[in-house]
């Protein structure tokens, strides 16, 4: 495998692994903030305990995800110096805003939220988690502004062989970025909904004494996935208006290929077939998730069957990976379909590769990065599974939560 393909596969693996954390982080942050709002406003003890339990899972996923994000960015300087040199003046701007204006604020307020439990005024503490959630959205938005510019470069001009930003509004308002942001936002909620329903289904399947806790958690997860499953496909479908013509085919594709050939010479400018595979997997899995959402629509208002439906619990446990796989397939369609361009119609991927970096050097970094990310993903999965199995009594977030009275399933009134 040559240096270019190794560098592309390496970045695909690391970016895809990092996105697994991002999706759950965005969705869980929102749900935890809503749970804490309910607990703060109404004084609901069960929602306070739900905030601690699901908040602990959110913190673990966030912490490990931070490491993958920092490691992933090293590759821009390591393997893609050609892109940084030519387009850094535009591409680097939203990434800098993400790091300075969003990431540091988000991590600082998250630390205050974690260690300020029972030390700060309850309304101040509630405000902290909402700041964390909103800055998580802001962070995702800036990353997608950078990615959207790679897909549809706007608001720039070339000077002395380098891209220079000329229109900040065009960059920040790029429809390719805005629609992708909406798609990712609802995708994160869908992921969190399936995750919450799956964990709750696991405990209800085992006939836990925490019936009320996981009944409410199951209902929250199901309502979330029902609310997100249609918007995620609607916003995703709106992006087709801005697809590169080399993805869609037809006369526009032929005209684009002719233009690229005239400017850059002969080459294969049509989207690779792997992009179509990603699109098919994405849409197929969405159809399956939509079907599960329709089943959830029936289940969610039935307290007895929500708790006792053992087959339904097994299905929801098995369904947890569905949104993850669908989103990775969607990114495959979006990113692979842009090839052979790093910046569509401006910079070819092979020209973005760091000069002088051979296949041997990239092979070493490929093995190192892949091993590191495999460990991080494995550790995160192990920690989430371990803490999720313990249930709310094992939550250490904010100190020991109040202990709910144990009750056998048969004594619970629905």
From TrEMBL:
Domain of life: Bacteria
Localization of this protein: Cell membrane
Annotated spans, Disordered: 393-414
Compositional bias of kind Low complexity: 394-414
Record field: transmembrane: 12-34, 55-78, 90-115, 127-150, 177-199, 220-240, 280-300, 312-333, 362-385
Main localization (coarse): membrane
Pfam families, sorted: Cyt_bd_oxida_I
InterPro entries documented for this protein: Cyt-d_ubiquinol_oxidase_su_1
Keywords: Cell membrane, Electron transport, Heme, Iron, Membrane, Metal-binding, Transmembrane, Transmembrane helix, Transport
Bilayer topology: Multi-pass membrane protein
PANTHER family, per database record: CYTOCHROME BD UBIQUINOL OXIDASE SUBUNIT 1 (PTHR30365:SF15), CYTOCHROME D UBIQUINOL OXIDASE (PTHR30365)
UniProt similarity note: Belongs to the cytochrome ubiquinol oxidase subunit 1 family.
Name of the featured protein: Cytochrome ubiquinol oxidase subunit I
Organism of derivation: Actinomadura napierensis
Organism ancestry: Bacteria, Bacillati, Actinomycetota, Actinomycetes, Streptosporangiales
């Amino acid at each position: 495998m040559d240096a270019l393909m190794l560098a592309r596969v390496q970045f695909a693996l690391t970016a895809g692994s990092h996105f697994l954390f991002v999706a759950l982080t965005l969705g869980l942050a929102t749900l935890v903030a809503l749970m804490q709002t309910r607990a703060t406003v109404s004084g609901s003890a069960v929602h306070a305990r739900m905030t601690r339990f699901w908040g602990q899972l959110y913190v673990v996923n966030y912490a490990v995800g931070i490491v993958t994000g920092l490691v992933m960015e090293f590759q821009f300087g390591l393997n893609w110096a050609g892109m940084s040199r030519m387009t850094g003046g535009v591409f680097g701007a939203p990434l800098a805003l993400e790091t300075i204006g969003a990431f540091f604020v988000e991590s600082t307020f998250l630390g205050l939220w974690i260690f300020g439990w029972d030390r700060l005024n309850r309304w101040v503490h509630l405000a902290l988690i909402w700041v964390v959630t909103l800055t998580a959205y802001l962070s995702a938005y800036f990353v997608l502004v950078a990615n959207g510019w790679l897909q549809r470069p706007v608001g720039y001009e070339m000077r002395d062989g380098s891209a220079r930003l000329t229109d900040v509004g065009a960059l920040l308002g790029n429809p390719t970025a805005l629609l992708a942001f909406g798609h990712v936002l609802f995708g994160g909620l869908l992921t969190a909904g399936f995750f919450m329903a799956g964990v709750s289904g696991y405990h209800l399947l085992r006939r836990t004494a925490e019936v009320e806790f996981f009944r409410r958690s199951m209902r929250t997860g199901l309502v979330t996935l029902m609310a997100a499953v249609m918007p995620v496909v609607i916003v995703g479908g709106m992006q087709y208006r801005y697809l590169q013509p080399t993805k869609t085919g037809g006369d526009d594709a032929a005209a684009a290929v002719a233009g690229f050939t005239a400017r850059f010479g002969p080459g294969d400018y049509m989207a690779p077939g792997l992009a179509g595979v990603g699109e098919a997997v994405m849409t197929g899995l969405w159809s399956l998730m939509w079907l599960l959402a329709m089943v959830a629509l029936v289940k969610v208002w039935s307290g007895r069957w929500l708790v006792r439906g053992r087959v339904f619990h097994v299905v929801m446990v098995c369904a947890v990976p569905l949104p993850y796989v669908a989103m990775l397939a969607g990114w495959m369609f979006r990113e692979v379909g842009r090839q052979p361009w790093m910046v569509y119609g401006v910079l070819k991927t092979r020209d973005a590769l760091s000069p002088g970096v051979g296949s041997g050097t990239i092979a070493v970094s490929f093995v190192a990065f892949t091993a590191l990310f495999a460990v991080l993903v494995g550790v995160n999965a192990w920690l989430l599974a371990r803490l999720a199995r313990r249930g709310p009594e094992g939550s250490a977030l904010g100190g020991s939560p109040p202990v709910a009275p144990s009750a056998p399933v048969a004594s619970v009134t629905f």
